[in-house]
Amino acid sequence: MDLTSEKEKSQVHKFFAQCIERLKGSDKQLPQVLTMRELCLRGFAVHHSGILPILKEVVELLFQQGYVKILFATETFAMGVNMPARCVVFDNIVKHDGTEKRVLNPGEYTQMAGRAGRRGLDTTGTVIVLCKENTVHQPDVLKQLMMGSALELKSKFRVTYSMLLNLLRVEQLKIEDMLKRSYVESSSLRESINLQLDSMSLLNCPICDNSIREFHSALSHFCRNRREIWPKMNREPAINKLLISGRFLIVNNVQNQLENEIVLLLKEMVNGQRRSLQILVAVKNLDTAIQLDQHADKFQKSLTDDEATWQTEESQILATAKYGTCGSRHDSDTTASLWNYRVCEVPVEAIVAVLKKQVKQLASSEIVQDYQRNMIPRFRSEEVSTNTMKILQQLSQVKTAMQNEEVEIYTYAELAANCQNIDLNMEVSFLGAREMELRDREKFGAQHCADFETHLLEHRQRVRVERRAEKLKFDLSSDALLLSEEYQNRLAVLQNLNFVEPNKMVSLKGRIACEIHHQELLITELILDNKFHSRPPAELAALLSTLTCQYNSGKERLKFEEGSVFNEIRDSVTAVMTRLESVAAKHKSQIADVGCEIRFDLMEVVYHWASGMPFSKIMELTDAQEGLIVKCIQRLDEVCKDVRNAGRIVGDPALVEKMEEVSASIRRDIVFAASLYTSV
What we know:
By secondary structure, the chain is α+β, with helices and mostly antiparallel strands. Helices cover 52% and strands 10% of the residues. This is Helicase C-terminal domain-containing protein.
């Protein structure tokens, strides 16, 4: 396939030759250079981290000029400011972010898809998402990808060893002040929240004005304590016996849209330490059950933990205010609920009350199997079985009896009496006392207001904003920042390794580490363990490459020739790293962050490069892509500069001279070719 005209080929050939002319000798004949030239002549190109830097720049310039018609690129290219295209094709909408595979977020999709459509040339841009191997992306996934809101900007600030050492070295600057500055967007957010609070109108009701805040606080504490106490009570043998198959319960679970609903317990589900309840809920028809299932799935996937907690609290507070502490929702027509049913799972925390009513010898597994069968489209028209219909009739009767106050529930006093644990007994009794307070309508006059529910919702909106302001205030406080686990753990590691004195003064060892910007602890230990002096420049380059290599060959343990210097280097570096990691593990920390681990995959390659071997010969020794090798060596040069500066702190001119020799041995030819953007 050929997409360029003869004139365009001539321009590409001339430009490519001009750019490659700066390379020396055999570098001009590298397979990647020859392949890329052939591709560009035909109007194609490739752009990713494995491509040589000079070739990536050639591709970028040719693409901007319109000579490259089809470009295969990673998302990094799409971040370019001036890289528009007529059409953007997504080979996949799933990416690996260094930790796991996930779907692109809306911001990433928009950034890449936004390249489609050249300003002044195209009226529209085309974006295509490929569906390979007969797999079609789910509509809700695509809708979220294309129409979802961009991710909120959040501080990616991390406490690092280098940052701690440099801040401790400057007496005039407190660490907490530096940490506060990293949360500058939180300060702006707090200001906007305070403005939002000021703009909210105060509740203007003579009945609710004085007592609604107090009543809301009491409701909030009661509901939270009830959620926390039921998982504990469920572990008490006597109470666990009450939660048997066939027991009628009142539950409140916002995920399944259950607002103090009377349900039938089918069985208790145990998954490790987590316990939940499988329940039967009466619904009007099977379509309603399907919609509720879909809502439950969406709720779990789309909400953050904070939002889910807030909605759970709101559902329970409003239901408690409406129906009472142990009341149930009143169905306007109990017969309508006999048409069908739904089986779902709720956490133990969703329990509001346990009724002294149960269905004996309940065939729960049969009910669940019938429900699962009814969820299959071709069986949805089947009627509810006779046995299940009888169960639904009993459920309807219990609901009616509950409305008429003819059904007893287990009181907190009765539940407390069944608790063998003394502390739990006291907690349940205390919850019972709080319940009695909430039932006192004279204590909380807001309950007498005709618009009580509306006013309670308005107050909830204000409480939500107030809580956000309080959380931000605490997050920005000195106490919260200094007591952060990450800060304390990393400081303990530095003190244990003698980088920092007990009085938090930086030691000589710490001052050396301050000069190093990558793997500072490991390199400092290698310097002070005298691992550098006895090695020639090529071996030192190989040793330091273990800290800058990002290529992973996939082999668990690389095999080098028996007695080679590479085995010795690996053992030496590994021994020091193991010692550091054991200290960090004691303090629940780590030495190397994700993506900065030591790798030995390019040690031999760097050794030969520092020894003067041509790049073309080096490519015969490894499967690593050219771009990754160049990146490793370029980063290695930066590390050499850091170690040289550290040598000056130690007062070791021999180390300074040796690092200059290492740097001189690697700074040559294609690896350090000048950028086209500054020299063409």
